[in-house]
Design brief:
The protein is an alpha+beta fold. It has 5 helices and 15 strands. It has a single domain, classed as 2,3-Dihydroxybiphenyl 1,2-Dioxygenase, domain 1, CATH 3.10.180. The two termini are 24 Å apart.
Length: 260
């Protein structure tokens, strides 16, 4: 794994306290972050902050944005492909007022559809596909709702995330799904083999893990190949590791990210 990703997490560790990550499940896992690479950092920031109401932060050259249950990390990088055709096809967000959110995004210069009854689907900056779901009971303007995976084997993918991360399997409407604190993981069948996420606009997703070293030993025992081994960043008080799921989703594991 390239060094810039490590630098982003090192910067993140110095973040001030704010909206914290969800408490972990019995496996010690909760949602952590979404990592977006873009040549247009300010445009991504405007989308998330001005349009959707995320809490902004700045750490060195990188932006850290907070939404309930997760962080969004924005890294300056060369243009990569969007989410269409990759293993994570879109990000699902809840907004308290769908019409108002779309109006703010339009005012900020983004092309968005007209508000439907409860849902809107469109491409955000850099081709990151976004689904907005209206929820008047939401405490705050925006929150992470789901990540929608596209895979040739939805039931197998669901079972893998349940086994590896302790995700609670179930259904979300007609879709196979699994819940990790802070996010729903939704799985749809893809007729074509999906592209890996690495190097795309949504480069990887992150989970926060308690006792990361022990968790990585469990992964190794299951035959999971770790791309970037456990690394403690003592100056910042966090630990990280990277691996890739069997379908090409790049995943970062962090420990103690929930303290910031």
């Amino acid at each position: 794994m390239r060094a810039p990703g490590l630098l982003v997490l090192a910067a993140l560790a110095a973040a001030p306290a704010g909206a914290q990550l969800a408490p972990p499940n019995a496996a010690g896992v909760s949602m952590g972050h979404l990592h977006i690479r873009t040549p247009g950092v300010e445009r991504q920031r405007a989308f998330w902050v001005d349009g959707l109401g995320a809490q902004p932060g700045q750490f060195g050259p990188h932006h850290l944005l907070k939404i309930p249950g997760a962080y969004v990390l924005i890294q300056q990088a060369e243009q990569g492909a969007g989410t269409d055709g990759s293993t994570v096809g879109h990000i699902g967000l809840k907004v308290r007022d769908l019409k108002a959110a779309l109006e703010r995004l339009k005012k900020a210069g983004f092309e968005v559809p007209e508000a439907g009854a409860r849902q809107a689907m469109f491409d955000g900056p850099d081709g990151v596909r976004i689904e907005l779901i209206g929820d008047a009971a939401l405490n705050g303007p925006v929150g992470l709702h789901h990540l929608h995976f596209y895979t040739p084997a939805p039931e197998e993918t669901q079972a893998w995330y349940a086994k590896v991360f302790g995700a609670a399997p179930g259904k979300r409407g007609p879709f196979d799904a699994a819940d990790v604190p802070g996010v729903n993981l939704t799985f749809s069948k893809s007729d074509a083999a999906p592209a890996p996420t690495r190097g795309r606009a949504l480069d990887h997703i992150g989970f926060e893990v308690k006792n990361l070293e022990a968790f990585l030993r469990q992964l190794a025992a299951q035959g999971v190949i770790i791309d970037t081994p456990y690394r403690r960043l003592p100056s910042f008080g966090i630990a990280i590791a990277f691996f890739t799921d069997p379908w090409g989703t790049s995943i970062e594991l962090t420990e103690d990210l929930d303290k910031y």
